[in-house]
Design goal:
76 residues, mainly alpha, 2 domains
Length: 76
Amino acid sequence: MGNHPVIGYIVWALLFGALFAWEGLALSGISGTVPTLSATFRVIMRYPFGRWALFALWLWFGWHIFIRGWHFLLRA
């Protein structure tokens, strides 16, 4: 194992923590103005451009998570 960038793990933990905090706040009912993630995606998916943008984001995310770091699959 090589040196792992700890800052990357911290950033991912903060992103997922913010995502869970947003969903928890929306579902708790404390603040009636915070939409849930499903409501947010429903608004985005209403328009064709939003569907294409989410699809592009999904492809980009999948590339960086599953393909980019796997050098053994890309060797000649």
